Sequence to fold (519 residues):
Amino acid sequence: MPKHYLRFPSNGPLFAEAKPTQWKHTFLFGQPISLANLDLSRNQLSGSIPSCLGNLSSLANLDLSSNQLSGTVPPSFARLSSLAYFSAHGNHFNETIFPSSFPASLKALSLSLKQSIPETFFNNLTNLWGLYLSDCVLNISKTWIPPFQLSELQLVSCMIDGEVPPWLSTQFSLRSLRLVNTCLVGQIHSWLCENSPMLSTLNLLGNHLEGSLFLNASICMHLEILDVSRNKLSGPIPSIWSPSMATLTLRDNLFSGNIPVSLSKCSSLIILNLGNNSLEGTLPHEFSQLSKLYSLVVHNNKLKGSLPSSIANCSELQVLDVGNNLFGGEIPTSLKNLSMLRVLVMKGNNFTGSIPPELGQLTNLQILLLSSNNISSPIPHTIVLLQAMMIESQDGYLLSNPNTTELYHNGIDMTLKGTDQHYTYILSTLTCIDLSNNKLEGEIPFNFGKLKGLRLLNLSMNNLNGTIPNSLGEMSQSEQLDLSRNHFSGQIPAELESLSYLGSLNLSNNNLSGSIPQG
Fold:
């Protein structure tokens, strides 16, 4: 730990129920006057921020984020002439915070404020390069010229009146701009990128923006991360992109036309999400050149043709979602080469033929959704070889890559209890097989119960027959089991009594007989 650095970890009991008076005595130990870095984030600190912190004349970095603090920022903070970084987002400040509370030395400010912020709030912050605000109302005039030049700006769930704020046109050093859920209207102005030649991250998620994405496509050549999800943007997707583009998320808009083949030249692309638009045409074969692609999502469009077998060349792919389109033909056996694949969604298309036995080689596959197609033939016995579904695990982790910030957080639709249900986030422990509403025939593989970690299984609305395997009682993690609308006969296995997590069981519309198990 660096000299003059004090940090209290979130798993420690210190300050768990700290009162303002306790803060005062605590900061008297160890000559705190020389303290340069203080991190108290992610605890359960309550009460107001003690004014005695203003005595730490050497303090340069202060992080109080993700606690339960209230009150306001004490005026004594103005004496912290060395303070460069101050973060207090994720608290419950309920009193007005005055601009006089912040020293001019401040370079980065992060706050969650349920209050109106006038432009005078920033008058003294001439050295500010990073501003991160949430939950506030910005009361700023259209003619305001800020006293700073920002490198990073993040406004989340802040109320902005009207279009993209004109004062952003005066910021020439922006590298990262995030205006998320801020009720923006109008178009994306070209000057937003043209005036900031170093801008690499642009996130405008969850607004009401309309029109084309970029009237002048060349202005996005320096972007590496672009997210304009959940807007009303329309027209074709631009064909000119930076080769260094890493994340492109255009989901939940009104984009039309074909998917540009030129996207295949974005050799650094990790995430491509074009879901829930009105895109037509085919999925470009050239996407096989995207060797770093982690997540490819094109669900809820009007794409047609066959799924290119060459997509299996994207060896890093972990999420492939082509659901609810017009794709047809057989499922490519080449998908077996996607050894990293964890989510495969092909539901709601016109795929025919059989389920390739080779899919059993996908040892990391957690979610397999092939519902609502025209797939026939029996369920391959190799499906019980899906190793990731054999593991009995506990909840706790999001399906995400620690090296990226936005992956498959758009969620997924699964048919459960007869209706489509949306999962906003995908847990690393969520396992699901949905083969419903096809033309599958034959029996369920007798050793299907080897998938002990399988939580959701839907085989409804098929032509399956035979008896229900006793081994299904070994799926100890099972929460949802739907075998309805088939031709199963015989008795309900008593082994199903052992499924203690089972919340929904549907065996209706079959030819089952005998008694209902007592459990």
Observations:
- The mean pLDDT is 86.
- The CA atoms of residues 290 and 436 lie 32 Å apart.
